[in-house]
C-alpha cells in the first residue's frame, strides 16, 4: 500500500476497523486520511460518524461515474439499509445531514426534475449586479463592526466569513427584519449543535412562506412560490432549508479559505481573487464529503462489492486532489473540479456562490488594504467534521479605520428596500422590546441609523 512519506495509517474505528472521518485527528490532517484511503482503492469503508458506516469514494473518475449515473445510484435515503434496520444511532450527528427530506437534493426521477426546475428557474432570476451590491453592503456592515475597534485585530471566520452569507441570503429571500434575525440564529444554531435550532428555523421560514403567500415580493421566496411547479408549503419549507443550510456553510468556507490563501505568504502578488476562489474549490473543497448515493443493485467499485442500498458517499475533497489528475490538470478546465458536484444533482447555485465569494474577498481587501493573517496558512486549524473543509479561525490584523454605508447603500440598497416593504410581527403590548438581531442591525446600518 502506498502512503505519503511521514503519514502514519489513521487508526480504525474499534467497532469494525474503519477509519473515522471525524474528530481532532481527522481535522488535523484530512489530506493524510485521504492519501491512506486512496491506497485501499477507488473507494473504502469509513465511519462518517460513530456507528455510521459509508463507502467513501476518493477517486475522481469513480466519483464522476457515480454522479453522472442516476440509473444505478439514487439519492433517496429512505433506501438506506442500516437506517431501516435500526443500526444507525437515533442521536447520530449524521442523521440531520443524510435523513430524507422532500427536496431536490434527496429526490430522484420526475420528483427531482420538478423540484430542481423550480429552484434553478428561481435562481436564474437573480440579477448579478444586484447580488454584488447585496454582498458588498453585507461585507461593509460586518467590516464596520470590527474595523475601528480592538486595535486593528479580528477573527474573520466568526466575524466575517460565517455571518456574511446569512445576511445576503436573508436579503435575497425577502426576509423582514424579525424573521431574518430568527433565520440567522437558527441556521447558526444548526451548525453549532444548539438545541431547538431546527425548530427555530422551521418556524421562521413557515412564517416567511405565509407572509409571501399574502404579500408577494420581488425576492427568491416569491419566485419559488409562484413557479409553475406549484410547490406546497411543505415543499417550499424544505427547498428553503436546503438553499440556506446547504449554501451558507460552504460559502463561509470558500470566503474564509480564499481570504487566507490570498493573504498568505505563498500567494503570488497580482493574481485575481477569482484564482484564489478557484484554488479553494480544487484543493480545499468546501463540501468535503457528502452526496450519499444508494445503489439500486449490487455494484463493484475497484474490486469491492457494495450492496444495493448501502450508502456510497462522494469525497469531493479527495476526488479533486486525486494524484492521477496531476498530469492532466493543465489540460482540464478550471471548472472541472467536483466541488459543486456533477450530473443531474450538480449545485444549481454555483454561479451565484462564486460571485458572492469573490465579492466578499475583494471587498475585504478594498476596505482593509493592509490586512494580514497573524499566522502562516499551514498552521491554521480545520474544523474536525467530515462534511465541510472550513477553517476554525482566521486571525488578522490591520490598520483600524471607520467603514460607513455609502449613499448608494442608503438610498438604493436591496436590503433597505426589503426593510421598507417588510411587515414585522407586532410587539406584545407592555412587553419589553427584544434586542435587535444581526439582520435588523444590518438593515438599520444601511439606512445610516
Automatic annotation (TrEMBL):
Superkingdom of this protein's organism: Bacteria
Family: Belongs to the cytochrome P450 family.
Name assigned to this protein: Cytochrome
GO molecular function, one term: heme binding
Organism for this UniProt entry: Streptomyces malaysiense
InterPro entries xref list: Cyt_P450_B, Cyt_P450_CS, Cyt_P450_sf
